[in-house]
Amino acid sequence: MRYRSFVRAGLEQIKRSLPFILLLRKPDLSFSFAVKQEQDSCDLDDRSSFSDASERALKSSSNRNIGDPKMADQNGLLLYYNAFSFYSQKVVMALHEKNLKFDVRDIDLNGEQYKPWFLQINPKGEVPVLQDTGKIIPDSARIIDYLEDNFSNGDTPRLIPMDQGSEIRQKVTFFRGLIDKINGNVLTIGSFLHPEFANGPKRVPFIAPVRKQLVKADEESAANLRRYAEETPGARAMLLEKAENQEKKREKLLNKQEFIKILNQAEEVFDKIEAELAEHTKDQEEWWLCSDRFTVADVSLTILMVRISQIGMEPYFWSNGKRPYMEYYFERVQDRESYDKTVPTTFTLIKTIFKTQAPLLLGVSIAAAIALIIGGWLVVRRIIRK
């Protein structure tokens, strides 16, 4: 146990050093666009809207064998995603829950999503996108539905149980729809603009320098989209439409009363979730949201609770006894293997930072620090074994 404590202490040292690392970097921390880019793609009330041109392009692209030119001969499932993307995480967790093998292509949301090759895949310039050999499926909800329809047999469990009766199936569908109406990225940006609602501890990746950069990125988003529109004539109309929508959404989010309305809508959803969990008594105490099985509704709820926890809004929504059943649920779900494989860690953030323009000398210093931690762990381990 002592060497585990040693390693945990080392990780805490690295975590505390992250603000310093970020301050030394250039200000365009690329993973921050995982929030800004998705904010661009999501209306505050409805995420599913497509322009006619984008819808036609998507229908056309889904019938062509296109994709990353470097991976054009890829067989099987290939996910274009970003590890810090709220909607990407839903798909990643669903894939792991279904025990599916898949490859990933990490998209740098500092502009790579608007490259011509990626716009061929998704004309909206958004992640996640799933490529199943010659098929292209955009949008997290569509992807999960596609996985359910095409990969649900043998060792690949269903996320919408078909053998537990219509009541369970309808309940899963109901709660999934309810939860998916809560836009995690809207809550994220809103919590930065109105920090009085986020009194809990902030967790990776949303440490102080990141929050500051995200606020700046959100402020500059519309101008950046217009710049991309001039640089990418083929996607000009789509990008200008995004820029206009971003300005409207930002204006709405800056209004505190409008943000309170969004929070109240989330509270109503969480009241229904808490009531459902409270009904799980006796032999149902270890049930998940709708069933003894982990369903698509649990995927949506887990990723939403992860984001709320990361931005410091746990006290506002469920902790300290406010919604005890949700609090217990969140403790339990963190023990799932799919959770560990989906939610980015401190090391994921460090790797992202040094992949995107971190100073070489600083990279060497951190690498040395990590080596010292691992070396110290091995020494302690040998002592314990003796």
Automatic annotation (TrEMBL):
Domain GST C-terminal span(s) in chain numbering: 218-354
Family: Belongs to the GST superfamily.
Keywords: Coiled coil, Membrane, Transmembrane, Transmembrane helix
PROSITE patterns the UniProt entry points to: GLUTAREDOXIN_2 (PS51354), GST_CTER (PS50405), GST_NTER (PS50404)
Residues annotated as transmembrane: 360-380
The protein's name in its UniProt record: Ganglioside-induced differentiation-associated protein 1
Highest taxon of source: Eukaryota
Span of domain GST N-terminal: 75-155
